[in-house]
Amino acid sequence: MRNVLQDPATKVQFAGHETFPLRLLWPKKAFEAVRGGAPLRTFQEHEAIARFGVGRNMAVSMRHWNIASGLIEEREGLLWPTALATEILDDEGLDPFVEHPATIWLTHWHIASTPEMTTTPFYAFNALPGVDFDSEGLASELLRLVQERGWRATRVTVKRDVEVFLRSYVRRTGALTEDAAEPLLAELGLVREARIGGWFEFMRGPKPTLPDGVFALALDQFWQRTGGDSMTLTAEQVTYEPGSPGRVFKLDEDSVVTRLMALDAITDGSWSWTDTAGLRQVHRRHQPDWLGLLTRSYGRMAEAA
Predict the structure, then answer these.
(1) CATH number, domain containing residue 90
(2) Which residue ranges does the record assign to the DUF4007 domain (predicted)?
């Protein structure tokens, strides 16, 4: 995972959002549009303006973000909601109108933990050294990678992607318009403007609104990507490796360890934590129940089968 952006097989993308950040109402609107399966051009047709109440470019952006968020997938030539989307966004689901922090944290995890559709957020959260950065520096680092790897992306495209990344995650101080409050991911407070003009900083540390269930779901996906056959992961891997919960959620090491120590209870014994002779690890006994973890993230217990 360390060199995922150096892997020739890795797919990257710096466009698709049509310069719009992900907005609060989009997950539910997109879910309803594809609930029973929808043509691939559903978000691109002229009817999209009436269907979604937005312009065509914004409808295309809606499609992009919902696929990147793990809420929509292409299957058998149609667009469908994922199992995750159905559990959350159905009218009787866990959070149909995206009012719970768990939904936003899950959305962020899907966007920032892999580079395939959202390369700039992945790079920013997983590869930038330190906590401070400026937009020009971030764009320059990405352009260097584009040149080294031979990816197809222009300077204008990359710089625009960086702008959308910042508009997605940074809550603008002093903004009073309704539109300024709309970007969904800014609610997490993961990135803020620094005192020095043009600079930004990641807010690293404990995340009180991040449910333990969401952390466990993210850890499960990270575990599968980094070596699903391994029965153990170290605290250092979970904290510092690119694509890890520690990196993506900007958790410090103590916060990660605190959450790892709670995994036995959270996963009903599927995972356990050990700290022996300085070797701090989480052990996997068997695969946890993802639906149980999801429902616990919203303060509910899974219904008995």
Answers:
(1) 1.10.10.10
(2) 14-289
CATH of the domain at 172: 1.10.10
Report the C-alpha gap between 305 and 303 in whole angstroms. Answer: 6
Condensed to tens digits (0 to 9), the pLDDT of residues 190-244 reads 999 987 778 999 999 999 999 999 999 999 999 999 877 899 999 999 999 999 9
Q: Structural domain of residue 152, as residue ranges? A: 101-203
Choose among 170, 27, 169: nearest CA to 108: 169
Shared-domain flag, residues 76 and 56? yes
162 with 246, same domain: the answer is: no
Q: In what order do the strands lie in the sheet with 72-75?
A: 38-39, 78-81, 72-75
The pTM assigned to this predicted structure is 0.94
pLDDT of 29-56, one tens digit each? 999 999 999 999 999 888 888 889 889 9
What is the C-alpha separation between 106 and 98, in angstroms, rounded?
Answer: 11
End-to-end Cα spacing for the chain: 36
Residue with tokens 């914004």: 58
